[in-house]
Amino acid sequence: MGSKTKIIVLHMKEIIYTAVFAALGILLIILLLVMFRPDGKKTSTNTDTQKYTPGIYTSTLTLNNTNLEVEVSVDESHINSIRFSNLDESVATMFPLIQPAIEEIAEQIYDTQSLENITLSDKTPYTSQVILEAITQTVEKAAVD
């Protein structure tokens, strides 16, 4: 009767290419779904991640009847700078290791962004301790309640 047989010739190369492209397409779709799906986590509000009130805060440090202002600059989550705001030549001459001591402490604080586990210098342990206490008081002023 009228049955006609159709023969389809498939080349193995075409089948392999089709399978590879189909697998890459499925992999791309899965990758896009994983990357752009909503996390399901609540996004934290700004006050949850905020550690400090941005600004410049000062504390007074008294050395030998001379008042020094320790100035700490902070943004919402980082301590940006620590310095003496009124260190003049006479105080620097009288206490020559005070500037290196605050720089050493400040560098440790910049690296860790914490006042915990600060290593004090063996050359100036007492001065470093007084400076660290002044910095701690100043950072407490900046902390968010």
Which structural class should the secondary elements be placed in?
A: alpha+beta
Reading off the top of the CATH hierarchy, the class of one domain is best stated as Alpha Beta
Number of helices: 5
Mean pLDDT: 85
Shape: rod-shaped
Distance between the termini: 93 Å
The gyration radius over C-alpha positions equals: 32 Å
Order of helices and strands: HHEEEHHH
Task: Identify the CATH architecture of one domain.
Answer: Alpha-Beta Complex
Number of strands: 3
Q: Uncertain regions: pLDDT < 50 for 5+ in a row?
A: none
Largest sheet: 3 strands, antiparallel
Strand percent estimate = 15-25%
What is the gist of this entry?
By secondary structure, the protein is an alpha+beta fold. It is built from five helices and three strands, in the order ααβββααα. It has a domain at 48-142: Sufe protein. Chain: A (Alpha-Beta Complex).
